[in-house]
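ARCHIVE RECORD
Type: protein–small molecule complex
Small molecule: magnesium ion
Source of inputs: curated submission
Record status: active
Notes field left blank by submitter.
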Amino acid sequence: MQHELQTKFRERFGGPANLYRAPGRVNLIGEHTDYNQGFVMPVAIDLSCWVAIGPRDDRKLVIYSEDVDATAEADLDGEAVRPTRTWSDYPIGVAVLLQQAGHRLRGANLYIRGEVPLGSGLSSSAALEVSVGYALLETSGQDIDLVQLALLCQRAENEFVGARCGIMDQFTACHGQAGRALMLDCRSLDYRLLPLPDHVSLIICNTMVKHELASNEYNLRRFECEESVRRLAKVLPDVHALRDVTVKQLEENRGRLTPVLYQRARHIVTENERVQAAAVALQAGNAGAFGELMGESHRSLRDDYQVSCSELDVLVEIASRQPGVYGARMTGGGFGGCTINLVASEHSAEFKKQVAYAYHSATGHEPRLYLCQASQGVQSLWASQRDGK
Ligand code: ADP
Ligand code: MG
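STRUCTURE (tokenized, with ligand):
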């Protein structure tokens, strides 16, 4: 792969290239908690965005992506670069934000290949942003602070692309580690790396559906959470986000919320507790306890937060009755996209076969399944070649 990408780069741009990669991610537990300043537990996966990069003599960025078979250009000295509402806003937005933060970038040619499926909830966007950001900084001889890089990439997606995302995706693309899950406090950005048991596999199943209402409902959920905080803060002045509310406080103040607001808040408050319990389970190597929490998380998202859909529910239900399964749940924003499954490794091949068959029979959709490894965050492959690693 590395050699092939360098060849492709040379054919398109001429000259040698350095290689970088940053991973997609899957969230094991902690859904919709990020914008409530709570806890999430993602894993960086072994599907990456790859960037081959070579410096230019001028101050232009020329970016080609194989996945969309298109080239975009930006002048780093030009008048304020504007978003075009296309794929190139992701990499160019990162360059713009890096420069605004005081990093003077060199002109460069970039050749991009993404392995993370686009728009499936596995965060191809953060993989693209972080790999490009890291590659641009290193090519320009700048120091790299991974927390700053994650924050700048998130800002690029919020401000330049115009997508309202939390910090989880970019943080995971920067800080993931092989064999580890990452428990992140979305308020303080403190994180812990937790060991995944050796004998379990992570299997992502893509429903292959994406329902239209996803983005409206997402905005509505954010509003519902903010409204709950406003109401609760009137009597609980230390509450600034649902992260600050305990189950006991929520029950005591249930009357201040409408039934729907109460349900939404209950999901967030209990989900934060589940992430903490899940961390304890992982630390103890207890896949069974972890899997139970995944099941509870799914039911809470389905019944209280109401962001699941029939395809996700069917897929989780089919997965949960397979031999060797510890836990299954929807992952990502909901209304389609993927489920994540924790499966005893010796059962993983059979699991994939049976689940694909049963889901197809039930829904008519051909699911896509990925057996993943928890992998390392962004890295320079050039450095490992150079240093003989
Ligand atoms: P997700 O991050 O879950 O894959 P998003 O909607 O956040 O979904 O981001 C997907 C978008 O990111 C794509 O539609 C495309 O514009 C852009 N993108 C991601 N990876 C690539 C790539 N390798 N080449 C070009 N565009 C990409
Ligand atoms: Mg994304």
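CURATOR ANNOTATION: The CA atoms of residues 53 and 110 lie 5 Å apart.
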